[in-house]
Amino acid sequence: MYVRQKLPHGAQAPSVAREVVDSLLDARLSVEALSELRLVVSELVTNAVRHGEESDGVVELFVTVGGGVARVEVIDGGAGFEPPPGAPRPEEPGGWGLIVVDRLASRWGIEGSPRTRVWAELPLDTFDTSGGAPTAPAYARNV
User: Within 13 Å and on the Cβ side, how many CA atoms surround 15?
Assistant: First the structure.
């Protein structure tokens, strides 16, 4: 299954992205897999709106599901970025989005040419419930 959706580059984009995921994948995924996929989609779209550059007024969302993996790609008009080197301080209200993505995704990465594309792959058959302290994101560059 493949989903491509252009979202408005604005505050409503994350909720529209979640609605798209729900409407197309609700009956196809377990409750746990859908919840994690919705969270990753929401975090990546929120980052694109908050930190990315506007490109034609849209953020692009791609979701591919197959072979036991969901792959999410979010594209904005920016030229890429380097993720922060570590976790934010606990008292900081923001900066946790990529930490969440790192904890849920089996792999994720950033591509920055010519636009910013942040992608994440989530296994649909296993879930890490071990918890633990947040760590700095481990990501793949231009994979």
Answer: 3
